[in-house]
Amino acid sequence: MMNTATLAFPNSNFLSLLADSVTRARTLEELVRPLLELLQSVTDLESTYLTTIDSGAGFQYILFSRNTSRMQIPEGLSVPWEGTLCKRALEEGKPYTDDVANCWADSGPARELGIATYVSTPVRTEDGTLYGTLCGASSERKPLADGAERVLSMFSRLIGQQIDRERMVQALRHANDSLALSALTDATTGLPNRRALMEEMKRRRETLAQRGDELVAAFIDLDRFKAINDRYGHEIGDRFLAAIGERLRGALRSDDFVARLGGDEFVALSSGTRGDRAAIAAAMHSRLFAATSGRYAFDGVVIDYAGPSIGVAIAGTEEEPDALLARADTAMYADKQERKLTATTH
Q: Which of 81, 109, 169, 196 has its CA 20 to 30 Å from the CA of residue 285?
Protein backbone atom coordinates (compact mmCIF):
# COMPACT_ATOMS: atom_id res chain seq x y z
CA MET A 1 0.00 0.00 0.00
CA MET A 2 1.28 3.49 -0.86
CA ASN A 3 2.60 5.38 2.13
CA THR A 4 0.84 8.76 2.22
CA ALA A 5 0.77 11.87 4.35
CA THR A 6 -2.17 14.18 4.82
CA LEU A 7 -2.55 17.15 2.48
CA ALA A 8 -5.12 19.88 2.91
CA PHE A 9 -6.06 20.08 -0.79
CA PRO A 10 -7.52 22.05 -2.25
CA ASN A 11 -7.39 25.12 -0.02
CA SER A 12 -8.11 28.73 -0.83
CA ASN A 13 -4.48 29.90 -0.62
CA PHE A 14 -3.28 27.14 -2.93
CA LEU A 15 -6.03 27.80 -5.44
CA SER A 16 -5.40 31.54 -5.33
CA LEU A 17 -1.68 31.08 -6.02
CA LEU A 18 -2.44 28.58 -8.80
CA ALA A 19 -4.97 30.87 -10.48
CA ASP A 20 -2.54 33.78 -10.28
CA SER A 21 0.26 31.70 -11.83
CA VAL A 22 -1.91 30.48 -14.71
CA THR A 23 -3.42 33.87 -15.56
CA ARG A 24 -0.09 35.73 -15.44
CA ALA A 25 1.92 33.22 -17.46
CA ARG A 26 2.77 34.26 -21.01
CA THR A 27 5.52 31.71 -21.57
CA LEU A 28 6.21 28.14 -20.53
CA GLU A 29 8.86 29.30 -18.08
CA GLU A 30 6.52 31.86 -16.48
CA LEU A 31 3.99 29.08 -15.89
CA VAL A 32 6.33 26.31 -14.78
CA ARG A 33 8.45 28.11 -12.18
CA PRO A 34 5.57 28.99 -9.83
CA LEU A 35 4.06 25.53 -10.40
CA LEU A 36 7.30 23.92 -9.26
CA GLU A 37 7.21 26.05 -6.12
CA LEU A 38 3.62 25.02 -5.45
CA LEU A 39 4.47 21.38 -6.15
CA GLN A 40 7.32 21.57 -3.68
CA SER A 41 5.02 22.92 -0.99
CA VAL A 42 2.48 20.15 -1.70
CA THR A 43 4.93 17.22 -1.73
CA ASP A 44 7.58 18.52 0.71
CA LEU A 45 10.19 17.08 -1.66
CA GLU A 46 13.61 18.70 -1.90
CA SER A 47 13.59 19.15 -5.66
CA THR A 48 10.83 19.60 -8.24
CA TYR A 49 11.59 19.81 -11.93
CA LEU A 50 10.28 19.64 -15.48
CA THR A 51 12.08 17.57 -18.08
CA THR A 52 11.85 17.38 -21.83
CA ILE A 53 12.65 14.27 -23.83
CA ASP A 54 14.38 14.06 -27.19
CA SER A 55 13.52 10.51 -28.13
CA GLY A 56 15.34 10.79 -31.46
CA ALA A 57 18.62 11.71 -29.79
CA GLY A 58 17.88 9.45 -26.83
CA PHE A 59 18.32 12.09 -24.13
CA GLN A 60 16.30 13.65 -21.35
CA TYR A 61 16.98 17.24 -20.29
CA ILE A 62 16.16 19.13 -17.09
CA LEU A 63 14.36 22.18 -18.43
CA PHE A 64 13.38 23.99 -15.20
CA SER A 65 14.02 23.01 -11.59
CA ARG A 66 13.45 24.24 -8.06
CA ASN A 67 15.92 22.95 -5.46
CA THR A 68 16.63 23.18 -1.77
CA SER A 69 20.09 23.18 -0.28
CA ARG A 70 19.77 19.45 0.45
CA MET A 71 19.38 18.40 -3.20
CA GLN A 72 20.48 20.01 -6.44
CA ILE A 73 19.11 18.82 -9.77
CA PRO A 74 20.59 21.41 -12.12
CA GLU A 75 18.79 22.93 -15.08
CA GLY A 76 20.37 21.93 -18.38
CA LEU A 77 21.44 18.53 -17.07
CA SER A 78 21.15 15.87 -19.77
CA VAL A 79 21.07 12.13 -19.21
CA PRO A 80 20.50 9.19 -21.58
CA TRP A 81 16.74 8.54 -21.70
CA GLU A 82 17.23 4.79 -21.59
CA GLY A 83 17.28 3.64 -17.99
CA THR A 84 16.19 6.91 -16.37
CA LEU A 85 13.79 6.87 -13.44
CA CYS A 86 11.24 8.68 -15.58
CA LYS A 87 11.31 6.05 -18.32
CA ARG A 88 11.12 3.19 -15.84
CA ALA A 89 8.27 4.81 -13.95
CA LEU A 90 6.32 5.17 -17.21
CA GLU A 91 7.01 1.64 -18.42
CA GLU A 92 6.35 0.00 -15.04
CA GLY A 93 3.37 2.16 -14.12
CA LYS A 94 5.11 3.13 -10.89
CA PRO A 95 4.86 6.92 -10.50
CA TYR A 96 6.09 6.99 -6.90
CA THR A 97 8.55 5.24 -4.63
CA ASP A 98 10.31 6.19 -1.40
CA ASP A 99 12.83 3.39 -1.85
CA VAL A 100 14.66 4.16 -5.08
CA ALA A 101 17.81 2.35 -3.95
CA ASN A 102 16.01 -1.01 -3.84
CA CYS A 103 13.37 -0.38 -6.49
CA TRP A 104 15.80 0.80 -9.20
CA ALA A 105 19.18 -0.08 -7.75
CA ASP A 106 21.00 0.00 -11.10
CA SER A 107 20.01 3.59 -11.94
CA GLY A 108 23.25 5.55 -12.28
CA PRO A 109 21.62 9.04 -12.39
CA ALA A 110 19.62 8.24 -9.23
CA ARG A 111 22.78 7.20 -7.38
CA GLU A 112 24.73 10.25 -8.58
CA LEU A 113 21.97 12.65 -7.56
CA GLY A 114 21.32 10.85 -4.28
CA ILE A 115 17.60 10.27 -4.93
CA ALA A 116 15.76 8.23 -2.31
CA THR A 117 12.17 9.36 -2.98
CA TYR A 118 10.88 9.95 -6.46
CA VAL A 119 7.53 10.87 -8.02
CA SER A 120 6.70 11.76 -11.61
CA THR A 121 3.94 12.10 -14.17
CA PRO A 122 4.20 12.34 -17.95
CA VAL A 123 3.61 15.67 -19.72
CA ARG A 124 1.86 15.16 -23.03
CA THR A 125 0.68 17.51 -25.74
CA GLU A 126 -2.88 17.48 -27.06
CA ASP A 127 -2.12 14.81 -29.67
CA GLY A 128 -0.74 12.49 -26.99
CA THR A 129 2.93 13.01 -27.82
CA LEU A 130 5.23 12.63 -24.80
CA TYR A 131 6.91 16.00 -24.22
CA GLY A 132 8.62 15.23 -20.91
CA THR A 133 7.94 14.59 -17.25
CA LEU A 134 7.02 16.60 -14.18
CA CYS A 135 8.96 15.23 -11.22
CA GLY A 136 9.76 15.55 -7.55
CA ALA A 137 12.70 14.01 -5.71
CA SER A 138 14.27 13.90 -2.28
CA SER A 139 17.42 12.51 -0.70
CA GLU A 140 15.32 11.26 2.23
CA ARG A 141 12.52 8.74 2.28
CA LYS A 142 9.29 10.70 2.30
CA PRO A 143 5.66 9.59 2.09
CA LEU A 144 3.56 10.92 -0.74
CA ALA A 145 1.04 13.43 0.55
CA ASP A 146 -2.59 12.62 -0.01
CA GLY A 147 -3.73 14.46 -3.17
CA ALA A 148 -0.22 15.00 -4.53
CA GLU A 149 -0.87 12.73 -7.50
CA ARG A 150 -3.90 14.83 -8.44
CA VAL A 151 -1.79 17.99 -8.21
CA LEU A 152 0.91 16.44 -10.41
CA SER A 153 -1.68 15.37 -12.97
CA MET A 154 -3.34 18.79 -13.00
CA PHE A 155 -0.02 20.60 -13.33
CA SER A 156 1.11 18.32 -16.15
CA ARG A 157 -2.11 19.07 -18.06
CA LEU A 158 -1.62 22.82 -17.56
CA ILE A 159 1.95 22.54 -18.81
CA GLY A 160 0.88 20.47 -21.82
CA GLN A 161 -1.75 23.06 -22.70
CA GLN A 162 0.83 25.85 -22.46
CA ILE A 163 3.19 23.94 -24.75
CA ASP A 164 0.35 23.52 -27.27
CA ARG A 165 -0.45 27.24 -27.05
CA GLU A 166 3.15 28.25 -27.64
CA ARG A 167 3.45 25.89 -30.58
CA MET A 168 0.23 27.26 -32.04
CA VAL A 169 1.48 30.83 -31.65
CA GLN A 170 4.78 29.84 -33.25
CA ALA A 171 2.94 28.18 -36.13
CA LEU A 172 0.76 31.25 -36.60
CA ARG A 173 3.81 33.51 -36.63
CA HIS A 174 5.50 31.26 -39.16
CA ALA A 175 2.36 31.30 -41.30
CA ASN A 176 2.16 35.07 -41.00
CA ASP A 177 5.81 35.42 -41.98
CA SER A 178 5.18 33.14 -44.97
CA LEU A 179 2.17 35.20 -46.00
CA ALA A 180 4.14 38.41 -45.63
CA LEU A 181 6.93 36.95 -47.73
CA SER A 182 4.54 35.71 -50.41
CA ALA A 183 2.91 39.14 -50.52
CA LEU A 184 6.28 40.54 -51.52
CA THR A 185 7.42 37.71 -53.82
CA ASP A 186 6.63 36.89 -57.42
CA ALA A 187 5.46 33.27 -57.56
CA THR A 188 6.86 32.50 -61.03
CA THR A 189 10.42 33.74 -60.60
CA GLY A 190 10.87 33.87 -56.83
CA LEU A 191 12.03 37.47 -57.23
CA PRO A 192 10.61 40.37 -55.23
CA ASN A 193 7.42 41.74 -56.80
CA ARG A 194 6.29 45.29 -57.62
CA ARG A 195 5.22 46.01 -54.05
CA ALA A 196 8.60 44.94 -52.69
CA LEU A 197 10.32 46.98 -55.41
CA MET A 198 8.53 50.19 -54.48
CA GLU A 199 9.34 49.70 -50.78
CA GLU A 200 12.99 49.03 -51.63
CA MET A 201 13.21 52.13 -53.83
CA LYS A 202 11.85 54.32 -51.04
CA ARG A 203 14.29 52.84 -48.55
CA ARG A 204 17.27 53.20 -50.87
CA ARG A 205 16.42 56.76 -51.82
CA GLU A 206 16.72 57.81 -48.18
CA THR A 207 19.83 55.73 -47.47
CA LEU A 208 21.72 56.76 -50.60
CA ALA A 209 20.89 60.44 -50.11
CA GLN A 210 22.58 60.31 -46.72
CA ARG A 211 25.69 58.73 -48.27
CA GLY A 212 25.77 61.09 -51.20
CA ASP A 213 25.26 58.29 -53.74
CA GLU A 214 22.65 58.03 -56.48
CA LEU A 215 19.96 55.43 -57.12
CA VAL A 216 20.23 53.75 -60.51
CA ALA A 217 17.20 51.95 -61.96
CA ALA A 218 17.19 49.70 -65.03
CA PHE A 219 13.87 48.88 -66.68
CA ILE A 220 14.10 45.53 -68.54
CA ASP A 221 11.50 44.47 -71.12
CA LEU A 222 11.75 40.99 -72.64
CA ASP A 223 11.37 41.55 -76.36
CA ARG A 224 9.62 38.77 -78.26
CA PHE A 225 8.48 37.05 -75.05
CA LYS A 226 4.94 36.70 -76.48
CA ALA A 227 6.35 34.80 -79.44
CA ILE A 228 8.10 32.39 -77.06
CA ASN A 229 4.83 31.83 -75.17
CA ASP A 230 2.86 31.34 -78.37
CA ARG A 231 5.35 28.91 -79.89
CA TYR A 232 6.34 26.81 -76.87
CA GLY A 233 3.44 27.26 -74.43
CA HIS A 234 3.03 28.94 -71.09
CA GLU A 235 4.98 26.34 -69.14
CA ILE A 236 8.12 27.02 -71.16
CA GLY A 237 7.32 30.73 -70.98
CA ASP A 238 7.23 30.61 -67.19
CA ARG A 239 10.47 28.65 -67.08
CA PHE A 240 12.04 31.21 -69.36
CA LEU A 241 10.94 34.02 -67.00
CA ALA A 242 12.41 32.13 -64.05
CA ALA A 243 15.68 31.60 -65.93
CA ILE A 244 15.84 35.31 -66.78
CA GLY A 245 15.37 36.04 -63.09
CA GLU A 246 18.25 33.72 -62.17
CA ARG A 247 20.56 35.33 -64.73
CA LEU A 248 19.65 38.80 -63.48
CA ARG A 249 20.47 37.72 -59.94
CA GLY A 250 23.82 36.44 -61.11
CA ALA A 251 24.63 39.71 -62.87
CA LEU A 252 24.03 41.91 -59.84
CA ARG A 253 26.54 43.11 -57.33
CA SER A 254 26.09 42.22 -53.65
CA ASP A 255 24.20 45.43 -52.87
CA ASP A 256 22.02 45.40 -56.01
CA PHE A 257 18.35 44.44 -56.16
CA VAL A 258 16.16 42.95 -58.87
CA ALA A 259 12.38 42.48 -59.05
CA ARG A 260 9.78 41.32 -61.50
CA LEU A 261 7.51 44.25 -62.18
CA GLY A 262 4.93 42.06 -63.91
CA GLY A 263 4.41 40.30 -67.23
CA ASP A 264 7.69 40.39 -69.14
CA GLU A 265 9.08 43.42 -67.27
CA PHE A 266 11.84 43.46 -64.66
CA VAL A 267 13.59 46.24 -62.75
CA ALA A 268 17.10 46.20 -61.36
CA LEU A 269 18.39 48.71 -58.81
CA SER A 270 21.95 49.72 -58.14
CA SER A 271 23.82 52.66 -56.70
CA GLY A 272 26.54 54.84 -58.10
CA THR A 273 28.73 57.64 -56.92
CA ARG A 274 27.98 61.00 -58.40
CA GLY A 275 29.82 61.30 -61.68
CA ASP A 276 29.41 60.57 -65.36
CA ARG A 277 25.78 59.46 -65.51
CA ALA A 278 26.01 58.32 -69.11
CA ALA A 279 28.93 56.03 -68.30
CA ILE A 280 27.13 54.60 -65.26
CA ALA A 281 23.98 53.92 -67.31
CA ALA A 282 25.96 52.35 -70.17
CA ALA A 283 27.85 50.05 -67.83
CA MET A 284 24.66 48.79 -66.19
CA HIS A 285 22.94 48.33 -69.56
CA SER A 286 25.87 46.32 -70.85
CA ARG A 287 26.03 44.11 -67.74
CA LEU A 288 22.33 43.26 -67.75
CA PHE A 289 22.11 42.73 -71.51
CA ALA A 290 25.08 40.36 -71.51
CA ALA A 291 23.57 38.37 -68.65
CA THR A 292 20.15 37.88 -70.21
CA SER A 293 20.93 37.33 -73.88
CA GLY A 294 22.11 33.98 -75.20
CA ARG A 295 20.95 30.38 -75.19
CA TYR A 296 18.28 28.89 -72.93
CA ALA A 297 17.50 25.16 -72.93
CA PHE A 298 14.41 23.53 -71.39
CA ASP A 299 13.91 19.77 -71.87
CA GLY A 300 14.78 19.75 -75.56
CA VAL A 301 13.48 23.26 -76.25
CA VAL A 302 16.35 25.58 -77.16
CA ILE A 303 15.85 29.33 -77.30
CA ASP A 304 18.57 31.56 -78.69
CA TYR A 305 17.49 34.83 -77.15
CA ALA A 306 18.64 38.09 -78.74
CA GLY A 307 18.26 39.95 -75.48
CA PRO A 308 15.84 42.45 -73.89
CA SER A 309 15.38 46.18 -74.28
CA ILE A 310 16.85 48.01 -71.30
CA GLY A 311 16.46 51.58 -70.15
CA VAL A 312 18.54 53.04 -67.33
CA ALA A 313 17.72 56.16 -65.32
CA ILE A 314 19.50 57.75 -62.38
CA ALA A 315 17.46 59.40 -59.63
CA GLY A 316 17.46 63.14 -59.32
CA THR A 317 17.35 64.90 -55.96
CA GLU A 318 14.28 63.76 -53.97
CA GLU A 319 12.83 62.08 -57.07
CA GLU A 320 9.89 59.80 -56.28
CA PRO A 321 10.21 56.09 -57.19
CA ASP A 322 7.32 56.26 -59.67
CA ALA A 323 8.95 59.15 -61.48
CA LEU A 324 12.30 57.35 -61.67
CA LEU A 325 10.63 54.21 -63.04
CA ALA A 326 8.78 56.29 -65.63
CA ARG A 327 12.07 57.76 -66.87
CA ALA A 328 13.68 54.31 -66.97
CA ASP A 329 10.64 53.05 -68.89
CA THR A 330 10.99 55.89 -71.40
CA ALA A 331 14.68 55.06 -71.82
CA MET A 332 13.74 51.42 -72.38
CA TYR A 333 11.34 52.33 -75.21
CA ALA A 334 14.06 54.44 -76.79
CA ASP A 335 16.39 51.43 -76.62
CA LYS A 336 13.65 49.23 -78.13
CA GLN A 337 13.15 51.62 -81.08
CA GLU A 338 16.88 51.83 -81.67
CA ARG A 339 17.16 48.04 -81.75
CA LYS A 340 14.26 47.77 -84.22
CA LEU A 341 15.87 50.40 -86.45
CA THR A 342 19.19 48.57 -86.32
CA ALA A 343 17.48 45.27 -87.21
CA THR A 344 15.71 46.74 -90.25
CA THR A 345 18.88 48.33 -91.63
CA HIS A 346 20.90 45.11 -91.50
A: 196
